[in-house]
């Protein structure tokens, strides 16, 4: 059975055990995205989790139905065929998953929108490094801001290419994410997300240069008022130089 697109299956049993042991999963509804051949799925079930597994590859769905027929019949495993970025997902408490690299960003943003108690997610190391970067530094990006605004994120451990089959060309990182209220009040989460997205689409420009062209999105009057009242130090900065409080200040002013 070959890998689907960029899917790399966990092959290191010790790594599987470490991932499945980060959180207490007994009697919890655990979402697994991209179960593949079910190695991690089996470890989650062994810990008493009620697993909801979302798999895009039809051949793997068929395999999993056969491999886990008993768990499916008992209700311990719910198999959801489809794309995790858009398919309807039953209610869950915790997420534990080896995410496909190409969809990591979309899935992470969707999970934050849906909400969960905690997550243990595996990413390409470079992606995880960006997520965990310090706010206000060159390594900071849209992902960094959105995750750290609405959650605590910490590195659990790194895994070498040899832990997977087929081996990827890069190292991977397991990250623990726990949602929390923003450190600075955010009046409208959708506006906040849009502001961060727009700012990082023009990240090499100053905040003033980016925002002056957003009247069609937020309203000319709101933008004019923001530009006249915002701290000049913020306006002259590039997005990557801002702090979480600055993003909240901008978004709240544009929330009407």
Structural notes for this entry:
The protein has 256 residues and is an alpha/beta fold. 41% of the residues lie in helices and 19% in strands. The chain has 13 helices and nine strands. The chain has helices at 13-20, 39-46, 58-67, 69-74, 104-114, 125-131, 142-150, 189-201, 207-211, 215-218, 220-229, 232-235, 244-253, and strands at residues 9-10, 29-33, 50-55, 77-81, 94-98, 118-124, 151-159, 164-165, 172-179. The strands form two sheets. Strands 4-3-2-5-6-9-7 form a seven-stranded mixed β-sheet, sandwiched between helices. Strands 1-8 form a two-stranded antiparallel sheet. Strand 2 (29-33), helix 2 and strand 3 (50-55) form a beta-alpha-beta unit. It is elongated, with a radius of gyration of 20 Å. It starts with 8 loop residues before the first strand and ends with a helix.
Form type: elongated
Q: Mind describing the biggest β-sheet?
A: 7 strands, mixed
Radius of gyration computed on alpha carbons:
20 Å
Quaternary structure? single chain
What's the rounded overall pLDDT mean?
Answer: 95
Fraction in helix: 40-55%
Beta strands, count: 9
Low-confidence stretches: none
Question: What's the order of the H and E elements?
Answer: EHEHEHHEEHEHHEEEHHHHHH
| Percent in strands | 15-25%
Provide the spatial order of strands within the biggest beta sheet.
4-3-2-5-6-9-7
How many helices? 13
Gap from first CA to last CA: 54 Å
User: What structural category arises from helix and sheet content?
Assistant: alpha/beta
């Amino acid at each position: 059975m070959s890998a689907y697109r960029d899917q790399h299956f966990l092959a290191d049993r010790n790594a599987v055990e470490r991932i499945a042991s980060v959180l207490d999963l007994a009697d919890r509804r655990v979402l697994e995205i991209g179960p593949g051949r079910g190695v991690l799925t089996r470890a989650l079930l062994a810990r008493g989790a009620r697993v909801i597994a979302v798999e895009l590859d039809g051949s793997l769905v068929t395999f999993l139905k056969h491999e886990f027929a008993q768990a499916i019949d008992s209700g311990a495993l719910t198999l959801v065929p489809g794309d995790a970025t858009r398919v309807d997902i039953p209610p869950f408490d915790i997420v534990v998953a080896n995410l496909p690299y190409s969809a990591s960003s979309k899935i992470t943003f969707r999970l934050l929108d849906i909400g969960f108690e905690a997550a243990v997610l595996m990413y390409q190391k470079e992606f995880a490094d960006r997520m965990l970067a310090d706010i206000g530094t060159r390594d900071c990006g849209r992902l960094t801001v959105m995750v750290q605004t609405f959650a605590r994120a910490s590195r659990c451990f790194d895994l070498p290419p040899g832990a997977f089959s087929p081996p990827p060309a890069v190292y991977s990182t397991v990250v623990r994410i726990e949602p929390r209220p923003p450190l600075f009040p955010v009046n409208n989460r959708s506006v906040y997300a849009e502001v961060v997205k727009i700012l990082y689409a023009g990240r090499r420009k100053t905040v003033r240069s980016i925002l002056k062209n957003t009247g069609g999105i937020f309203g000319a009057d709101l933008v004019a008022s923001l530009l006249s009242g915002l701290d000049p130090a913020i306006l002259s900065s590039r997005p990557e130089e801002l702090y979480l409080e600055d993003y909240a200040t901008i978004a709240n002013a544009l929330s009407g």
